[in-house]
Amino acid sequence: MKNIIETKKLCKTFSNGGIQQHVLKNIDLEIYEGDFTIIMGASGAGKSTLLYSLSGMDKPTLGSVSFDGTEITKMNTDELAVFRRSHCGFVFQQVYLVDSMSVMDNIMAAGLLVYKDKGTLVKKAGDLLKAVNIDETLWNKFPTQISGGEAQRVGIARSLINDPKLVFADEPTGALNSQTGKAVLDTLTSFNEKGQSIVMVTHDISSARRGNRILYVKDGEIAGECNLGKYVTGDKERHQKLNDFLATMGW
Questions:
Q1: How far is residue 103 from each of residues 99, 133, 147, 150, 160, measured CA to CA in Å?
Q2: Is the distance from CB of 10 to CB of 63 less than 8 angstroms?
Q3: Taking every pair of C-alpha atoms in the chain, what is the biggest distance, in angstroms?
Q4: Which CATH class is domain 3-248?
């Protein structure tokens, strides 16, 4: 399998009142093309810090991150911004849509610096909104006029507008109820089935079951991993395998 990301001796340290807090410790890791990779662990284990370090949103203290063969840890802030825009998509717990812009304009704004032709951009945005099951009657609505689940699905469409190599999702269902959360997970799963590579941080077991590879972070290190294979609805063996793995990790 081809890797998209490779880290070597990845470390992240924060200083808190003169005390050094080692959040990530010498992590060697590969993220593979086409995978739906899940990052789990207890609160404060370093899950989100790892996600942001992999994506170039946060700069590691030591070590390297190579993304599709390019070592992004050597890039400056401006270079990283350009790189992320072309290679990465982001979905957060809070959607961060611009309230003064319509649903369609929120998505198009993310693609304006990549697409030269506006017509192509409009078509791509519309195709993505259809793919995430956002009805055309909502395209000209403002974010405050749609539901939380709809807003998160718009956020997923926005993350895909520039055809990213990898989508990074940080607790995308954390602020949603179970029904709307399932719709968001269904959307992510459908894109992964079409070949989209995804890395998602979650503390929710039902969300984690959507992934084919589970990484468990403990005290700033990868304590273990579990390979679940392709997601199939209602797979009881998959459910049990994940539960057994998490039990061995002290979940």
A1: 9, 13, 12, 10, 14
A2: yes
A3: 54
A4: alpha beta
Q: Would you say 48 and 201 are in contact if contact means Cβ atoms under 8 Å apart? A: yes
Alpha-helix runs per DSSP H in 116-230? 118-131, 148-160, 178-193, 205-208
Please name which of 77, 73, 38, 33 lies closest in space to residue 54, comparing C-alpha atoms.
Answer: 73
Distance CA 234, CA 203 (A): 20
**Spatial distance between the Cα atoms of 125 and 122, rounded to a whole number of angstroms:** 5
Cα–Cα distances in angstroms (integers) from residue 7 to residues 37, 157, 213, 214, in the given order:
15, 28, 17, 17
- Break the chain into its structural domains and give their ranges: 3-248
d(CA 73, CA 125): 31
- Tens digit of each residue's pLDDT (9 = 90 or more) over 81-134: 999 998 999 999 888 999 999 999 999 999 988 888 899 999 999 999 999 999
- Name residue, tokens 């992934």: 211
Beta bridge partners of 214: 38, 226
